[in-house]
Amino acid sequence: MRFTRLRLNGFKSFVDPTDLVIHDGLTGVVGPNGCGKSNLLEALRWVMGETRASAMRGGGMEDVIFAGAATRTARHFAEVSLQIDNTERLAPSGFNDADTLEIVRRITRDAGSAYKVNTKDVRARDVQMLFADASTGAQSPALVRQGQISELINAKPKARRRILEEAAGISGLYQRRHEAELK
Ligand code: ATP
Ligand code: MG
């Protein structure tokens, strides 16, 4: 599955609607400190179903909503949309009948997150599973956060194992087993 477009609206420092077309090959994002490079990667992680506010460098998930600046008032919602080229039909069944997938996550203050895939309402878990099965999940080692390399080196064996399991593409199975055990 290839990411082709990332759109942000009210997400962190991206207060105005921002539309990024992702072309084939390597994409670099350059800019001065604090311009929002890490925020972009977090938007990607977030739209894939990340539930840990700490992974967004926030105390609560609503911290991803633009919090206001000297000349701009705070926003009430944040939305990120990720477009995926699915012409090779690599998406899991249930999502695999369209050439393009558009995943949208929106958070509203006091109302939490809502997700859509191709305009249809879905659960957070559906989106997480979509990416876990495609082994590019929100926690996938394919998305390497600033400081994550040293975290990996210092990680306890259990945490390191989880990362290896994602790399092996079995985290979807692992999550299903965990859910089965809870039943
Ligand atoms: P560096 O090169 O230092 O890693 P960066 O380009 O990765 O910088 P980010 O960490 O993505 O920069 O962006 C940080 C900026 O985002 C800060 O100016 C911070 O105030 C702003 N920011 C983060 N969350 C919000 C929010 N909820 N509302 C408004 N601005 C925010
Ligand atoms: Mg950064």
UniProtKB/TrEMBL annotation:
Annotated residues for binding of ATP: P32, N33, G34, C35, G36, K37, S38, N39
Cellular localization per UniProt: Cytoplasm
Family: Belongs to the SMC family.
Subunit relationships: Homodimer.
Record note on domains: Contains large globular domains required for ATP hydrolysis at each terminus and a third globular domain forming a flexible hinge near the middle of the molecule. These domains are separated by coiled-coil structures.
Task performed by this protein: Required for chromosome condensation and partitioning.
Protein name: Chromosome partition protein Smc
Organism: Rhodobacter xanthinilyticus
